[in-house]
Amino acid sequence: MIRTAILGASGYVGGELLRLLAAHPELRATKVFGESKAGRPVAETHPHLAAAYAGSFAKFDETALANVDLVFAALPHGHSQAIAQAILDRGIPFVDLGADFRLDDAETYERWYGNAHEAPALLETFVYGIPELNRAAIRGAKAVAAAGCYATAAILALKPLVDSGLVNSESLIVDAASGVSGAGREAKEATGFSTVDGNFAAYGLLSHRHTAEMEMALGATVLFTPHLVPMTRGILATCYGEATGSGDPLEALKGAYAGEPFVHVTDASPATKWVSGSNGVQVTARYDERTGRVLALSAIDNLGKGAAGQMVQCANLMLGLEETAGLTAIGVYP
Questions:
Q1: Percent of the chain residues past pLDDT 90, beyond the cut
Q2: CA–CA separation, 43 vs 26, rounded Å?
Q3: What is the dihedral of CA 77, 78, 82, 87, to 10 degrees?
Q4: Which of 4, 101, 131, 305 could form a disulfide with 126 if both were Cys (CB 3.0 to 4.6 A apart)?
């Protein structure tokens, strides 16, 4: 048994981590932290997990790291900067979902997040956590910064096309729509039922923070517009770029992802329900001769491959486990 601590376990991603670990052959959630829910039963916050977790949330402090073999953090952005050093000093493998350590340098972080980085010396310690891009570096790493949900969807759709020279890397446009769970569990007017139901809206115009990850991983310039769609889970990314090569973009995707356990290249247009509840990714691409552009689409579950599933996938690699342990690419439908 690999003793696992989850920080931020009372949120949606934390709940998804708990669900995945309940069925994992090696990882067990032995310490469950939730600051706002400390002392309250896990099953009160996550009633769907009542059969698996009888305990309560605890308040985190550094002494709680004793007897822990792995740490997952699903905390608000900025919080991991204060605790990362203590975790790394103990030699505990650490998978962080926050944006704190995803970017290459402190200046880029400050530009997109509006605050100076509090632990810039640690940035080079973390590996960017998309296994399909960085599998070798993640394997055996002590610190991984799991990628953002929008970034994961867009990067997996576009990376093979950029790398193969099929699209102009200065022309990329990403329109992506996410379910409301991507905004977190905290009640907000912008994501309340009356606001979201029957509505479809763009937000974060020209400034969404996941743009920085996309540009870093793709080595490209990206215009990204996120949208909020009235559903609970899922992301659909629709990506465009000027065609620069004569190859078939769909074949480029098939070649890049041949043998990947969680990425399925499809001739059809992907849908979010195809991957709901899973760590799966469904991607496709087309060349449009009329406009001279390439169209690529990607569907993921924002709580799965976009968050908790990818965290577990990274942890499996870090610990020398089967990469697919406790995960599936099969969605829940309808």
A1: 96
A2: 22
A3: 30
A4: 101
| pLDDT recorded at residue 32 | 97
pLDDT, position 142: 98
Report the candidate in 329, 294, 326, 292 with the shortest Cα–Cα distance to residue 311: 326
CA distance 66 to 237: 41
Please name the fold of domain 2-146+305-318: Rossmann fold (3.40.50)
Distance between terminal CA atoms of the chain?
34
| Spatial separation of the C-alpha atoms in residues 20 and 15, rounded to whole Å | 9
Q: Which of 27, 122, 149, 318 is catalytic?
A: 149
CA distance 154 to 172: 10
For strands 94-96 and 70-73, give the pairing: parallel
Whether 2-146+305-318 and 149-302 share one fold: the answer is: no
Sign of the torsion formed by the C-alpha atoms of 125, 60, 304 and 238: negative
Cα separation, 147 vs 309, in Å, equals 11
User: What per-residue confidence (pLDDT) applies to 222?
Assistant: 98
Give the class (CATH, top level) of 149-302.
alpha beta
Q: What is the pLDDT of residue 245?
A: 80
Please report, for the chain, the start and end positions of each structural domain, with discontinuous segments joined by +: 2-146+305-318, 149-302
Phi, psi torsion values for 210, nearest 5 degrees? -70, -15
Is 149 assigned a catalytic role?
Answer: yes
Distance, CA of 87 to CA of 279 (rounded, Å): 26
Question: How far is it, in rounded angstroms, from Cα 94 to Cα 71?
Answer: 5
Q: Determine whether 63 is exposed, middle or buried from the number of CB atoms within 10 Å of its CB (0-12, 13-18, 19+).
A: exposed
Determine the Cα–Cα distance for residues 52 and 197; give it in Å rounded to an integer: 32
d(C-alpha 131, C-alpha 138), whole Å: 7
**Amino acid, single-letter form, for residue 53:** Y
CB atoms closer than 10 angstroms to residue 183: 16
